[in-house]
Amino acid sequence: MTGPRTSRYARDVAVVAFAQSDHLRRTDELSEVEMVMPVLHEVLAATGLKAGEIGFTCSGSSDYLAGRAFSFTMTLDGVGAWPPISESHVEMDGAWALYEAWVKIQTGEADTALVYAYGKSSPGSLRDVLTRQLDPYYLAPLWPDAVALAALQAQALIDAGETDESALAAIAARSRADAGTNPHAQLRGAVPQGDYQVRPLRTGDCPPVGDGAAAVVLAAGDLARQLCGRPAWITGIDHRIEAHGPGLRDLTDSPSTRIAAQHAGVFDAPVDTAELHAPFSSQEVVLRKALGLGPTGTGTGTGTGTGTGTGTGTGTGTGTVAVNPSGGALAANPMMAAGLIRIGEAAARIHRGASDRAVAHATSGPCLQQNLVAVLEGDPR
After folding, report:
1. What is the spatial distance between Cα 44 and Cα 19, in angstroms, rounded to a whole number?
2. Closest C-alpha among 85, 81, 68 to residue 32
3. What whole-number distance in Å separates Cα of residue 205 and Cα of residue 375?
4. 3-state helix/strand/coil string of the chain
5. What is the pLDDT of residues 159-178, one digit of tens each?
6. Are 215 and 39 in contact (CB under 8 A)?
């Protein structure tokens, strides 16, 4: 078997298919099952596999969004849980469900895996729901929402001289412009920056609230090549966590992202695509620095030595990096699925030959608290 260009694990595992729903502000007429089922059918059809032929199934969602305990069991109706299947669930973004599935394949207990994630944020107040992520004794009783905490991070970056409001507006404008070619994005094309939500963040600096779902299929070794013309091999994957309290860390940096990237091998060779889960424009500034992608701005740039673009970084080599060519989380941010979508979008670019080596990032928690980084590579042309 001819493996991917680099492999540091017991088994070669690839993303062989990706599908996502159209991301909408409201889907009142659809249940979670009805929202997920078309995506599951599409991703399985892309491989020719039937649900009963999948070795392991793992999902990511949140009971807090659904407003009921063990809400994920309902979507198993959409998967088809009879005859009995090997199944698991994470109360996290689907990117972490993908990590669990990848581990399952590494152990040899499965050769294929179906990973899906979904979130319906429209029924309630997402800003209030996300306060439940915070320390229950000191922060949560104050009800600081995700936008307010992100604004603290943005102001810290501005005070440190690492960005300004015009640069943040440029990130937002580029993301929505790039989303113009993404038929699934919730916001596309020119979107006004609007009024301040929490200074210095305006409406355009914040992600849209909406509903959506996504799914990927993983496969190992030669089976991956049978299912996909150009598999997106996961040549590195790692996730790390920051201190729970935002006041205990430097909000202008993300050491956990950098460490995860080092262990995943991001800096071993140049990347040409970066799908970053940056729900707020200011968080792209932090992630670019942590991943050595150079300065913010147009989203692409060339350079030599220690990064891309005209800034500094810790990556190696030369090249052009397309940052969030899908539009990223500023164009569509379905809770619990947006991180998995970053991996799926990066993999899809490899599938169609638009990328050879991509980095995908997912985050969870306030101010980039938890971060997962994956490197995906296509077979040499």
Report:
1. 9
2. 68
3. 27
4. CCCCCCCCCCCCEEEEEEEECCCECCCCCCCHHHHHHHHHHHHHHHHCCCHHHCCEEEEECCHHHHCCCCCHHHHHHHHCCCCCCCEEEECCCHHHHHHHHHHHHHCCCCCEEEEEEEEECCCCCHHHHHHHHCCCCCCHHHCCCHHHHHHHHHHHHHHCCCCCHHHHHHHHHHHHHHHHHCCCCCCCCCCCCCCEEECCEEHHHCCCCCEEEEEEEEEEHHHHHHHCCCCEEEEEEEEEECCCCHHHCCCCCCHHHHHHHHHHCHHHCCCCEEECCCCCHHHHHHHHHHHCCCCCCCCCCCCCCECCCCCCCCCCECCCCEECCCCHHHCCCCCCCHHHHHHHHHHHHHHCCCCCEEEEEEEECCCCCEEEEEEEECCCC
5. 999 999 999 999 999 999 99
6. yes
- Are 345 and 275 a contacting pair, CB within 8 Å? yes
Encode pLDDT of 299-316 as tens digits. Answer: 333 333 333 332 333 333
The pTM for the full model equals: 0.91
Distance from C-alpha of 378 to C-alpha of 229, rounded to nearest angstrom: 10
